[in-house]
Amino acid sequence: MNHVTTSTATTAASSPGTPPSHPATGGFKATYAWFVVAVLALANCVSFIDRLILSLLVQPIKAELSISDTAFSLLAGAAFAIFYCGMGLIIARWADRYSRKWIITSGVTLWCVMTALSGTARSYTQLFLFRIGVGVGEATLSPSAYSMLAGYFPPRRLALAIGLFSAGVTAGTGIAYLLGGAVIGWVFAQGEVAVPELGEFAGWRLVMVLIGLLGLPVALLMLLVREPPRAAGFARTSRSEVWRYFRKHLPRYAYVFAGYGTTSITAFAVMTWTPALYQRQYGASIPEAATVLGTVALLGGLLGAFSGGWLSDRLESRGDTHAKLRVLCGCGLGLLFPGIVAPFMPSMHAHAGVIFFMFFFGSAATGPAGAYVQSITPEPMRAQFGAAYQLSLVLVGATIGPFMVGFMTDFLFADEQKIGLSMSLTSLLANPLAAWLLWQAFRQTRAQPLSANS
Predict the structure, then answer these.
(1) Mean pLDDT for each 10-residue chunk of the chain (454 residues)?
(2) Any alpha helices (H) in 408-418, and if so which ranges?
(3) Following DSSP, what letter does each residue of 84-118 receive, concatenated?
(4) Residue ranges of domains in the chain
(5) How far, in Å, CA of 204 to CA of 188, rounded?
(6) I want to staple 359 with a disulfide (CB 3.0 to 4.6 A). Which of 56, 152, 233, 300 is the partner?
């Protein structure tokens, strides 16, 4: 096994404050590099469709399996998130050593199959286990994709590339609701349908099978993606070297991980529980709730992803060495109030108008945050730091956000009609802390400017 010392790894990045060495375009044309972004964004989109389709099926799943909001929150959050993060750290080491293309291709296949198999679950435990499988499959994507994109794009263009890849999250959220609502409307009107090799399915079970199978063609698209070359002098690192590097530069990472992770508490709470809010508080049907929320998520998310990445890259090209964290800090401020006030809106459409800003600023933050982490990380460690970044997002957000809402609805208010209060209180607790942490990240970087001698 070929290892390098910490000093060598640090040199590979020039310094923690200097963008890591970049193999130009690796011989690939710019148009092909953007094609890779599109394929990875589509994979990201499919991952979120498979992840969020459950949120449209809260009521029928609760009724059939006789479970509470708290139990459902564990299906939607913890079952997925804990194994997503745990396996993500392991898979990230593979991605820093082996073919990222084949890791992603295998992962897409796994999570789509596990989503389809969720429709066969006959108990809460079985469904929980299949959701774990979805999390393990999806753990392959983001760390590998971040590392690949950092190999395709120079640092001054990386925020937009990662922002557009991350747009798959919000596009996936919107499409999950729009496509999911349409599929649910069709499925519930069909009765039982025979699926080859799987048998007879109806209701929420058939929805899960169809959504899972629809994502499989993305694995075929990944076959057209070429592995970008590693930088000259690339060498593998040991776990101890990665850990030493992280501890040495802890201030550069910690506030970004903690701050952006905390913003995701409200984000996952909103994505998981808003369909139920629309049904319980505003009397909407599943297709109606899905159409309204899907439209807002799609428009706000895509506009935000482009705006955040574009603004960060533009400021940096003009000499602003703190551009990524400046934009990220601004997004934290923009996220302060929408989640708090939206549940008090008098109508579903008024709620959607307010929550638009949450999708916009949340998506705008993804490009600068991910690009910042990649830009200060040596190439042999990029996937592993990308996994740590994802851990801060998913383990904190997907686990705590849905659970807080379900727990407060069941035990604090003891009334499922009070779900709006639970969502507002979750935002009130999380959003100010997130804004403060992101401000500290920006402040730390201004106090210790990035330089070749840092």
Answers:
(1) 37 38 52 91 89 86 91 85 80 86 94 93 92 90 86 81 79 82 82 74 86 92 88 67 87 88 91 92 91 92 88 90 91 95 96 95 89 85 81 82 93 94 96 94 71 34
(2) none
(3) HHHHHHHHHHHHTTS-HHHHHHHHHHHHHHHHHHH
(4) 26-230+239-447
(5) 8
(6) 300
